[in-house]
Structures are given as C-alpha cells and as structure tokens.
Amino acid sequence: MARSTISWATPAALASLPWRSAGVLALTLLVAACSSGPAVRQGSSANYGNRTVGPERSAGQEEITLEAMSLVGIPYRYGGNTPDSGFDCSGLVRYVVARAAGVNLPRTTADMSGVGTVLERDDLASGDLIFFNTTGRAHSHVGIYVGQGKFVHAPNSGGTVRLESIFIPYWAKRIDGVRRVAANKAPAGNTTYVNRSAPATVADAPAAEPLPNVPMATAPNRPLTGATPSPLETPSSTARLTSPPAQDDDPIARFANSSM
C-alpha cells in the first residue's frame, strides 16, 4: 500500500472527490484560489516554541478539516453546539467530529483531552484536536488543526468561529496537548459526508463548562526572535503578530489525497 501524501488541491483533484454539497465545493475552490501560504515540502519541519511541526501526515481525516472549515464565520455562543445556535469551543469540536467522523466526544474540553490517541507535536496532522491552557487550567480551550499551521476554533464571546495560526505567540505558548480522535486512514467507501440540510445527529450533552473570554486585543507582546524563526515559511508580517487578527483573511487550502 502506497503511503498517503498531502498536496495542494487542484481542479482535477477536486472534481474527482465525492463532495458533499455545492457549498463545500465552492468553499474549497475559494480557499484554494486565495491561500497565500506556500506549500510545505514533504520532510520539512518548522520550529515553534521548543518543539517542531513535521510534515503533514493526515490520511482519512480530511472530512473533519472540511467540516470545520465550512463553519468558519458561525457566531460564538456560550453553550452552543449547532450552526443554528452558534458554538462555543467544545461545542464546535464535538459537532464537527460527530458529523464528519461519527465519533461522539464528551462535551467539555477537559473530558475531550482524555479521548483518542495522544500525539507529539511533530505528529500533528489535519483533523487532530489541539488543546490550550488559556485560564491557568490545563485543556481549557480546544480547536481543530486544519494544516499549514492553522486551526479552526470558537474563541470568545462576541466573536465567530475563526481560522487562526498556531504560531501567533498568544496561542503558541499556550498549547498543552494534541489528540487524534479519528482513524488515521478512512476505509474506502465508508466515509461519512455531511448533508448540510439534515438535522444534527449529535447526542444530547450536559451544559457547557464556562469558557474563557480570550482577550484578543490584549495578547502578550512576545515577538518572534532569531531563536524562533518564522515557521512553515510564514510571511513575517503574519508570523510576528502578537494577537489574533481582527478578521481572518488567510484561508488554508490543504487537503489529503490518499491512494491505495
């Protein structure tokens, strides 16, 4: 069996995929066209903090990535766990993983942090869960890694589900865990795709735990230095951000192509 590789989405590749809806296809074409980040060559690695992010190795987790990307822009709502109600951080992750991978996660971030396979940071791949300590309490925030150093999450009240770089110092220094909750390779012909008009199938869960109101505009000012070079060839104007941008305008266009 040939090893799966990651490549940029092309029109031919997109046409061959069983996309779930015209909306998701349009989103994919859009992000492929406007992504400004360079491709990561197989075997490359990048430093962040005291660890490294190695080559992307996701295979069969693209459903989670696509589902998460399709929800960018949905309003944040404490306790929310559907697109109609809005999402908090754990509600978003639980909804995405249930819909895209058929895995029913616990409702709170602390409980989610005990599910699945523990990963080293250099094994991080699209579709994995990435946890943060934002309140002085371990695993107090969670998002979904979507490749190219980006993750999707629902960060704070008054905001929306957003796409953000894990290399922004505020987030990079708060990463405290990575988990894989979906199969590393999806079985052929048995992939769950999302019908966007279908009702949510996520089981009822207890009310959400209090989530941090992340101070987007007051993130610590810790610019990158020579010891922490710009990761994944990220443009310096982005790599030196010390707080999340007010608006996400650098979408990711990285998808998994698997072959037998």
TrEMBL record:
Chain intervals for the UniProt region annotation (Disordered): 206-260
Polar residues composition bias: residue spans: 227-245
Matches recorded under SUPFAM superfamilies: Cysteine proteinases
Span of domain NlpC/P60: 58-182
Family: Belongs to the peptidase C40 family.
UniProt keyword annotations, A-Z: Hydrolase, Protease, Thiol protease
Gene3D superfamilies from the UniProt entry: endopeptidase domain like (from Nostoc punctiforme)
UniProt-listed InterPro entries: NLP_P60_dom, Papain-like_cys_pep_sf, Peptidase_C40
Official protein name in the record: Peptidase P60
One record GO biological process: proteolysis
Organism of origin: Pandoraea anhela
Molecular function terms, GO-annotated: cysteine-type peptidase activity
